[in-house]
Design goal:
Radius of gyration: 14 Å
Structural class: alpha+beta
Strand content: 25-35%
Distance between the termini: 32 Å
Strand order of the largest sheet: 2-3-4-5-1-6-7
Largest sheet: 7 strands, antiparallel
Number of strands: 7
Length: about 120
Amino acid sequence: MSYQLAFWAYPDGRRSNRVADRRTYLKLIKGRRVKDVAPLDTDRVLDELSIVYGTWRRTDTYHFSHPTHGSFDVWITGGTFVVLTFHNVKDLTVMDPAIQTLDALGVPLYDPQVDRRFPWVARAI
């Protein structure tokens, strides 16, 4: 099973708006810039993911794999948008560290499978 997670932040700390979030996601996934999306420290995102998935094999900067938990790819575009695509995942809880890590960085989850943003950003580090 594959599963995609998308992450971006609004500079004004705005919470979720289902229609606006869907439009923003569709623009970002097509590689278009969205003026009201905040820049991200993409190097920090990658560093934090490599820490929380420290037991996973990192085949290059953007690909992580584990012999029993599957794998995931990181796609970052425009310095504002992060997409994680998990492959061959049997237990969806393997995605939790990524969700929690990005949330802690101030970048909440948008789940395109259910068309929902989860704007519970705990705190920005």
